[in-house]
Amino acid sequence: MPVSTPFTGGCACGAIRYECSAEPMMSLNCHCRDCQRATGSAYNTVVGVPAAKVQFTQGSPQYYETSGERGTSVRHGFCPMCGSPLVALPSAYPVMMSLRASSLDDPSWVRPAADIWTASAQPWDTMNPAIPKFETQPTEEEFQSILA
Ligand SMILES: [Zn+2]
Ligand SMILES: [Zn+2]
Questions:
Q1: 2: in domain
Q2: Ligand 1 centre from 83 Cα, in Å?
Q3: Which of 84, 91, 97 is nearest to 67 (CA)?
Q4: Alpha helix segments (H runs only) across 14-145
Q5: CATH number at residue 100
Q6: Among all ligands shown, which has an atom nearest to the Cα of 116?
Q7: Would residue 78 count as lying in a domain?
Q8: Scanning 66, 85, 90, 148, which has its CA 20 to 30 A from the CA of 36?
Q9: What are the pLDDT digits (tens) for 9-44?
Q10: Separation of 134 CA from ligand 1 center, angstroms?
């Protein structure tokens, strides 16, 4: 993805700011119900980056946890002041942090490589036919194929 590092982002009210010093590993659109609820929209575009390369330069998110398939869970970080969703930490991929594309200062360089959880996509949602679709969570092997 055409991005120069470090790149920055933050929440809507400005209380929380972060900086990422590594290039993204991948980007995808998640159409699961948890993401729909958390975004208030049809799907959630995330950018996966090495968790160790993200630094909160101002404030720190508050987290809540959701449990997924096969005993995995995801911790979701949001701004306690304005409620903006910012990051997620999937227990299945502990080295990765996913940044909400919406929280980036410049989200225009993001290139989602796949649509996942399309089984719960909304009928009023439109998807890019050119990228791969996964009905639920991609397997480890499928996941590797969509890494940048
Ligand atoms: Zn905020
Ligand atoms: Zn999701």
A1: no
A2: 6
A3: 91
A4: 33-39, 140-145
A5: 2.170.150.70
A6: 2
A7: yes
A8: 148
A9: 999 999 999 999 999 999 999 999 989 998 999 999
A10: 32
Which residues, chain by chain, have CB under 5 Å from ion ligand 2? Answer: 30, 32, 35
Domain count, the chain: 1
Q: What per-residue confidence (pLDDT) applies to 69?
A: 66
pLDDT at 110 over 70: yes
Closest ligand to C-alpha of residue 62 is: 1
Does the pLDDT of residue 96 top 80, yes or no?
yes
Ligand 1 centre to CA of 33 (Å) is: 23
Query: How confident is residue 140, by pLDDT bands cut at 50, 70 and 90?
Result: confident
User: Has residue 1 been placed in a domain?
Assistant: no
Counting beta carbons within 10 angstroms of the beta carbon of residue 67, is it exposed (0 to 12), middle (13 to 18) or buried (19 or more)?
exposed
Residue 95 belongs to domain spanning: 7-145
Closest alpha carbon to 39 in 85, 83, 81, 70: 85
> pTM here?
0.91
